[in-house]
Each structure stands twice: as structure tokens, then as C-alpha cells.
Design a protein that fits this description.
The chain is mainly alpha-helical. It is built from five helices and no strands. Helix content is 83%, strand content 0%.
């Protein structure tokens, strides 16, 4: 169990730092009112977890530690659903209802599509 916890922690660290870098890039170079950095992180995270889980389904020899590192650790640290919720509330409180609707619906629908696409694409890995 200790090894698994270390793998989760390391994956979470790398995922969280990666999320920060992606968000900072978009805040600096694509200044828009829409929280594009968080939106893209969530979509990429959904795609990655679909790829990882689809890959693991076909490659059962991958250790539990690596599975936990990539899914619970990295994807858990990288994706930002709590930040998504906070930014949605902020958009609602500032009466940016069109942006809120686009952000919430887009995150859900495109995220689910990305996870499905990742799972499908994993068949070819």
C-alpha cells in the first residue's frame, strides 16, 4: 500500500503542476473572459483518463502502482473539477450567463466525448 500511495502522490504532484502551467499559459497568452485554461485541462484530462483506462483494459500486465499513478494521481491532480465549479459560480455571480452555459455544457459534453474518444483510441495502442 505504501508504494501505491507514493505513486499516487507523485502523479498528483506532476498533474497539479502541469495544470498550473497550462492555466498560466492561457491566462498570459489568451486573455479572454471564458476560463479557457481550466476548460482545456478538463477536456485533456478526460481524454487521458479514457486513454489510460482503455489501455489498461487491454494491457493487464501494467502494475497497479502505474495505474494509480496515471489515473488517481496524474489525472486526479491535473483535472480541475473543483476549479470548474468555482469558476462557474463566479460566472453566475457576475451575470455572465451565456458564458456559464457554454462553459458548463461544453465541459460536460466535450469532456464525455474526449473520454469516449480516448477509450476508443486505446484499442490501437
Amino acid at each position: 500500500m505504501n508504494r501505491s500511495v507514493l505513486f499516487i502522490g507523485l502523479g498528483g504532484f506532476i498533474g497539479s503542476v502541469s495544470r498550473y502551467w497550462v492555466q498560466q499559459y492561457f491566462l498570459r497568452f489568451v486573455p479572454v473572459g471564458f476560463p479557457l485554461g481550466t476548460f482545456l485541462v478538463n477536456i485533456i484530462g478526460c481524454l487521458l483518463i479514457g486513454l489510460f483506462l482503455g489501455f489498461f483494459e487491454r494491457h493487464t500486465e501494467v502494475s497497479l502502482s502505474w495505474r494509480l499513478f496515471l489515473t488517481t494521481g496524474f489525472c486526479g491532480g491535473f483535472t480541475t473539477f473543483s476549479t470548474f465549479a468555482y469558476e462557474s459560480v463566479t460566472l453566475a455571480r457576475t451575470s455572465e450567463l451565456v458564458l456559464l452555459a457554454a462553459y458548463a455544457a461544453g465541459s460536460l459534453l466535450v469532456g464525455m466525448l474526449a473520454a469516449f474518444l480516448g477509450f476508443w483510441a486505446a484499442r490501437f495502442i
